[in-house]
Amino acid sequence: MRKTIFTLSAVAACMLILYACRKNVKTETAEPAVSDEVLAKIYNLGFSNKDVIPDGNGNYIVEGDILISEAELNEKVNVSLLRVGNEEQYRTTNLVRSLPRTITVSLASSLSAWSTALNTAISRYNALGLTITFSRVTSGANISIVNGSGSFLASAGFPTSSGNPYNQVILNNSAVSGQPQNTVASILAHEIGHCIGFRHTDYFNRSISCGGSAVNEGSAGVGAINIPGTPTGTSANSWMLSCIGSGQNRPFNSADVIALNYLY
Question: What are φ and ψ of residue 198, in 5° steps?
């Protein structure tokens, strides 16, 4: 998934919004067009096919910060397991398996300024006593946090069909420069959430956290699997909301804790 910073003039003057996938910015080089065939495949997987970004490596960024590979575009989806929801927490079809297990995480040396932020993100998960725990390593990690560049804050993908977490989070060091450690901790915890199978809490209406017009990331009949026990009202300040304000801190709220404990 990719995160970016976006200035809202009408909705909130001078407020910066950090997008979970991609920032809506103008660039001098036009992004390459995405074929109708690819857009149809993305739609059939249950994701929004609006504002799709090719990353230049054969992958596509959808819904702001979700990375879909060429191989995943051709996977068959069991639509009976998926649903478009209202306001609860949602997960993907694939989850981390072989529990309990420890998931190792590494941080690129070029991102050393955010070591405290990563420690904070990890401690938020580990404090819940889940069947997955996170531990930092210097190499050979299950999830590698690496530096990136472009019109986004961070990006990640979803667990593999074999039950492993997505193996990489890209953090745009220049884009998050100047943000407090707790804001970057919230961004990293969000992207790790994608790596272990969480979708955006407001995927059905991104305007809840991003402002602007209502955008549903899913399509009728597919999109996300509801996590039982999570509230039917909007989950304010959930760590998996699509967008986060500049300087904002998002530790897990009560609904987030319910969702995490239900899955792990």
Answer: -95, 140
- Among 177, 188, 181, 164, which Cα is nearest to 1's? 188
Please report the domains of the chain, with CATH numbers, ordered by start residue.
5-22+32-263 (3.40.390.10)
Residue type, 224: A
pLDDT score of 217 more than 70: no
Tokens 């069947």 belong to 131
Please report, for residues 65, 106, 209, the alpha-carbon distance to residue 4 in angstroms, rounded to integers and kept in the order given: 9, 22, 14
Q: What is the pLDDT of residues 229-255, one digit of tens each?
A: 776 555 668 898 878 888 999 999 988
Looking at the chain, which runs of residues are DSSP E strands? 5-8, 15-19, 53-54, 60-62, 66-68, 90-91, 101-107, 132-136, 143-147, 154-155, 168-171, 225-226, 243-245
Separation between Cα atoms, residue 235 and residue 165, nearest integer Å: 25
* Residue closest to 66 by CA, chosen among 87, 76, 80, 52: 52
Report the C-alpha gap between 181 and 123 in whole angstroms. Answer: 14
Could you give the CA distance from residue 59 to residue 56 in angstroms, rounded to a whole number? 7
- Answer for the pair 223, 46: CB distance below 8 angstroms, yes or no: yes
DSSP-assigned beta bridge partners for residue 18? 5, 244
- The token pair that represents 201 in the structure block: 């809490």
CB contact burial 74-101 (16+ within 10 A = b; e otherwise)? eeeeeeeebbbbebbbbbbbbbbeeeeb
